[in-house]
Amino acid sequence: MKITVITGSPRTGATEGMADAFQAAAEKMGNEVVRFNATKLKVAGCRNCNACGKVAGRTCVFDDDFTSVAKAILEADGIVLATPLYWYSWPWQIKATLDRFYSFLVGGFDLKGKKAALIASCGEPTVDAMDGLVFSFKKTTGLLGLEDVGHVLIPGLHGTEEYKATDACAQAAALAAKFQ
């Protein structure tokens, strides 16, 4: 399978570590992984112009780094979003990218049947702090016809290295098996 991974943490820590573990396991299983770090991309948020798909070769009429992300998603069999929780939601960098997923829907680009998974962490001590993030992910996957194959949700992480003392990477690596 071909899997597109989009990470969204402005700092290096649990999100990148868990995404690394997922990618290593997925590649070991023979999958091809294409990865984007939303914090390093220049992606403007959706302008709701509804001109999606009107420019040949692009889902969105605006040509920024989302053009490459969209191309990778369209070519992929699966999508993984890896993010920290920021104020009970997505960090703005990955949120801008997610908002542009609107172009798949309005432009008539078929994502039905592609697999999708969520990897997330937060500083809050309980996993229910991520309920809003999970709700958003489930609504997005449902609307686009993606198959939600699982979530790795790790609470209680504050420092960038704390995830290493948990089973976060093992859980992320195990998630790769759902992309077979």
Topology record:
Elements: E1 2-7, H1 14-28, E2 32-37, H2 66-75, E3 78-84, H3 92-99, H4 102-106, E4 115-121, H5 131-144, E5 147-154, H6 168-175
Parallel strand pairs: 1-2, 1-3, 3-4, 4-5
Helix pairs in contact: 1-6
Order of helices and strands: EHEHEHHEHEH
- According to CATH, the homologous superfamily is Flavodoxin domain
Find the structural class using helix and strand composition. Answer: alpha/beta
* Structural shape: globular
**Low-pLDDT ranges:** none
The largest β sheet comes out as:
5 strands, parallel
Specify the CATH class: Alpha Beta
Per DSSP E runs of 2 or more residues, the count of β-strands stands at 5
Q: Enumerate how many helices there are, as a single number.
A: 6
Proper CATH architecture: 3-Layer(aba) Sandwich
Helix content: 25-40%
CATH-derived topology: Rossmann fold
Mean pLDDT level: 96
How many domain regions? Answer: 1
Output the radius of gyration: 15 Å
In terms of DSSP E residues, the strand content is 15-25%
Distance between the termini: 7 Å
| Spatial order of the strands forming the largest sheet | 2-1-3-4-5
